[in-house]
């Protein structure tokens, strides 16, 4: 591994931290602490991806789209784990269904992974577009060469 910027522009702990910004929503939504459609819920939905875009605009990784898709996929993992851990809080009376709970949980996990990744794709597209529209600061332009490595 080179001493320059990581391929995604951030260290893995920072990528995980950015993804974790979106995790509190599931913790507050599944037990019913915040309600779907409320202003507070909206903040928990839109502020974390906005932070992902801001971080990408600040750091200017070589591949902003891939960077944000990775963050979104990690968010999907947090979402899946959160839903599984909070299953009983979300469905205190259980689910009245002929489908076995294991199948429902598997579907919820797959759905969470897809949702997180799709949020990453949409947010990554926005971040990439903004990276092309919003000029980089002079420090961003002079501190890296075309390959993303620090100039000496």
Automatic annotation (TrEMBL):
Key words, A-Z: Membrane, Transmembrane, Transmembrane helix
What top-level branch of life does the organism fall under? Bacteria
TM helices/strands, residue ranges: 38-58, 65-87, 107-130
Protein name (database record): Uncharacterized protein
